[in-house]
Prior knowledge:
Layout: E1 3-13, E2 16-23, E3 26-32, H1 41-55, E4 59-61, H2 67-84, E5 107-110, H3 115-122, E6 130-135, H4 144-161, E7 164-170, H5 183-197, E8 204-208, E9 235-239, H6 245-252, H7 256-261, H8 279-290, H9 306-311, H10 321-329, H11 334-348, H12 360-370
Parallel strand pairs: 1-4, 5-6, 5-8, 6-7, 8-9
Antiparallel strand pairs: 1-2, 2-3, 3-7
Helix pairs in contact: 1-5, 3-6, 8-10, 10-11
Amino acid sequence: MPIKVEEIEAVKTGNCSRIQALVNDRPVWFESYDVDLQPSAEAFGCAFLIPALHVGAELILGEPVDPQWLGNLKEILNVTASWWGYAGGIPEALEDTKSERPRLERTGLCFSGGVDSFFSLLRPPERIDDLVTIFGFDIPIGDEIRISSVKQSVRKIAEQTGKRPIFVHTNLREHPAFGEVSWERAHGGAMAAIGHLLSGEIGRLIISSSIAKTNDRPWGSHSCLDPYWSSAILEIFNFGSEFKRVEKLHQISDEPILYEHLRVCWENRTPTGNCSLCTKCLRTRLALADSGVLDKYTVFAGSGALAHDLRATPRMEGRLEVLNFVLARARLPKEILDEARSLVERSRSTAFAPEVKPGLWRRIRKWIHQRM
């Protein structure tokens, strides 16, 4: 069964600019109260190409698309075929040969408030004009308390750095066709979609790299993929892949703006902010403690509880590079280093639930916390 995108339209209600479409007869929408979004078949194509490839479905776009964007997708297909064995083809769409809109000069940065996006903001490849924060990706669109907290933080960051904040809300992740593929594979196309919707405001979108070239692996947002979501009027750029995340954090860890605004937690165990106990929070706290600045950060539990929190963690999910980095430097107190070393050993042990697929424990914990 194909994935069909039809009836793309712009709807303006008061200060709310909404772009919506029917995808297999179910609505998908994006909206902003800050800027006017542009109707864009390319946006829906970016969002739904990977999901279509994943299930072996044809993607049909009911509106004309930019020829340059359509041609770029050949490289997306080549990369995803080599990574994940996808065998699909170019979406079915008419080419728009009439559009002559110039590319705008403004540059937007996809900004989550995490290490990667803060690094791009503070060590940018070029001038950044707008901070683009998206709700409905990591933060569910119904989580009004957390959304309000993040907006307040981003507005303060934008004011201190002289940028314009742009907030976009979307129900994209709630659509069944999008949910057929993991977020790990689909999120790059989803972020690129936002750029195309903002093409009336920006001519370039920076996506912060979360994969370093030294730790290269298939990932939905990647320097081998992100640039090929571009069109004639929007250039998408992946920045920061020459650095590991721990290296980025060490470069910017003593920037005061991070003390009150760094946000790395995505499990949402607490009503707002970082929980300080999940895998990402613990890794970040370790790196900050290694830099000697953890106790400056009001957004995390301090160094006094770090050894206890490491001891209470059954295992560290994902890569262990931060723990190994900290252990190799051996700058922290012996108690913390001993607990970090023990956590590495527990995490590497094949005796810990070997029958459970990678990532399943994370999903189980998230499910439990959502119901507590």
